[in-house]
Structure formats: C-alpha cells, structure tokens
Specification:
- InterPro entries: ADH-like_N, ER, GroES-like_sf, NAD(P)-bd_dom_sf, Quin_OxRdtase/zeta-crystal_CS, YIM1/Zinc_Alcohol_DH_Fams.
- This is NADP-dependent oxidoreductase.
- Pfam families: ADH_N, ADH_zinc_N_2.
- It comes from Pedococcus ginsenosidimutans.
- Helix content is 27%, strand content 31%.
- The protein is an alpha/beta fold.
- It has two domains: 2-127 and 274-304, Quinone Oxidoreductase, Chain A, domain 1; 131-250, NAD(P)-binding Rossmann-like Domain (Rossmann fold, 3-Layer(aba) Sandwich), CATH 3.40.50.720.
Length: 307
C-alpha cells in the first residue's frame, strides 16, 4: 500500500510517500480502507519527537490518528463491524507505528464508530480526535443545560466543536476569538468576545455572576479563567497541566467508541458539523502539516487518501 512515513524525527520535510506492507489485522481490530484522514497539532508534534518521552515509537512510522473509511476486513472476535461498514476512528494505539496517513489502517474496535450519514468523508475524518477532546472535557467537567460555558479559542479546530457540543447540552456559550471570527461563532450560537487585554472584563460584562465551566484550548489564560469563574465553577485545559494545581482538570483525550458514537448521533441530529478548512492529497501531507502548524486555520485540515 501507499503510505506517508518518516524514519527520523524532524519538521515536515522528513515525511515521504512510500510503498509499505499492508497492516496485519489482529483480534478485536478492523482493517479500514482509508478515504480521508485529518491533521491535528499532535500529529506534527509526534513527528517532531515531542511525545518521545511518553510514547514508544517504532521507526519508520506512519503518522496520523484520525480516519474515515470503509471496513475491508475484520480480525478474530470482532462482532461489532462487518466488511463494507462505513466508519470513523480516533485510531490511536499504545505505540506509534502504523497510523492513518495510508491507504489501509488497522484500528482496535475500541477506537471505531460508524460514520454519521450527515457528514462527508472529509468531515467524518475531522471529527474523532477534536470532537472527543471537546466532548470528554465538557462531560468530565459536568457541563449541563443552563450552564454558562466559556470556550477559549472557540474558532479553533477543537473550539468549534466544543461550542456546538455545549449548545447541544443546553448551555449558554461565550467564545473567545479574533474579531474576524465573531460572525462565524454567532452562527454556531456562541456569544463572541475578543481575546487579549481586558478579556476578563469583557466576559464579566456578559456574565456578571461568572461562568460555570471554562474550557482552555489555547493555554496562557489561567489568570483569566480564575477571574471569570463563578463560585463552584469548573475549569479544564488540554494545554496546561498546571491547571490541576489550581483546582482544574488537565485532559489528554482517550479513544472511546461510545463517546465517538454519541458525537455521530449529534451530527445526524443536525446539532454538530465539522468545518473543513483545507484538503490535501496524501502525497502533500507535508504541506498539510505546514498549514496546520501555522496556527491560523478555522476548521480542520484534511488528507484525501482515496475517492
């Protein structure tokens, strides 16, 4: 099969398109014929070696954890899926080796859910990691109907999904973003505020009693979070582990088929969509990494693998 591989850590220039053996399909796994994969910041950080202290990496490796595609084969004892099923997955394993930037990927069923009918292949590939991150942070913080939720970086890849999920839970949502993204956030049902100096005062002007839940998807905002949090409020971050020292939750997203199925259900109810900012062919994955690393993308960067 064709796959993007890297044999050493580095910038996107270490990526190359190569012929590699098809992956084996173990018990409790499915082999997915990849239609689309998506780029998340963690993907180029893995390639750069930033996660080497915490994850085993076997080089050469295929990067990528998000995927949408069609089940091509199933391993032993895998009753959850059959050949031909349309699926999506946050296909992270316990080590880095066989990722999703390839024509085929073997994924544990604990990472796989059926693709929402309402999303196309690119959108479905962009949902798993970012959607699970938003969903798991919201649910673990107990966000519920009637809460006021502040989303830092609401126009980012995770923030866009967090806004929609929080609205689906019945929450009021305030989202920080640059002014160019304010109208977009209003379209998602959020009340936008401009980040930067005076942010706490602007949030307090909208929520004088404070906010119930704060989600940090950007970092460097802990002081603002504490300044706007209501008594008894909850806050969490996916960026700064230091929040745990301030009564908050530091979250590292986990593959979870049930959570992913819940997101698929929200999508098919018309409550959740995935904006796609750019689509690149598999051979141009390095360019996709460069765009993602630029940090100014509204929506998901996607790799189109097959049609």
């Amino acid at each position: 099969m064709k796959a993007i591989t890297y044999a050493e850590y580095g910038d996107p220039s270490v990526l190359s398109l190569n012929d590699v053996p098809d992956p084996k399909v173990g018990p409790g796994e499915v082999l997915i014929r990849v239609r689309s994969a998506s780029v998340n910041p963690v993907d180029w950080k893995v390639v750069a070696g930033y996660l080497d202290p915490m994850m085993n990496v076997e080089l050469p490796a295929i990067p990528g954890w998000d995927v949408s595609g069609v089940v091509e084969a199933v391993g032993f004892d895998t009753p959850e899926f059959k050949v031909g099923d349309e699926v999506m997955a946050y296909a992270r394993k316990d080590w880095v080796k066989g990722g999703t930037y390839a024509e085929l990927v073997a994924a544990p069923v604990r990472t796989v859910a059926r693709k929402p009918e309402s999303l196309d292949w690119h959108q479905a590939a962009g949902l798993p990691l970012a959607g699970l991150t938003a969903y798991q942070l919201l649910t673990r913080l107990g966000a519920k109907s009637g809460d006021t939720v502040l989303v830092h970086a609401a126009a980012g890849g995770v923030g866009i999904l967090a806004v929609q999920i929080a609205k689906a839970l019945g929450a009021r949502v305030i989202g920080t973003a640059s002014e160019k993204n304010h109208e977009f956030l209003r379209g998602l049902g959020a009340e936008p505020v401009t980040y930067g100096d005076g942010l706490a005062e602007r949030v307090r002007a909208l929520a004088p009693e404070g906010v119930d839940v704060v989600l940090d998807f950007i970092g460097g905002v802990l002081d603002v979070t504490k300044a706007v949090l209501a008594d008894g409020g909850r806050h969490g971050s996916i960026v700064e582990a230091e929040v745990a020292d301030e009564g908050g939750l530091y979250l590292w997203v986990r593959p979870d088929a049930e959570d992913l199925a819940a997101l698929a259900d929200l999508a098919d109810q018309g409550k959740l969509t995935v904006p796609v900012a750019d689509v690149f062919p598999l051979a141009q994955t390095a360019d996709a990494f460069t765009v993602s690393a630029g940090g100014h993308v509204r929506g998901k960067v996607v790799i189109s693998v097959s049609s």
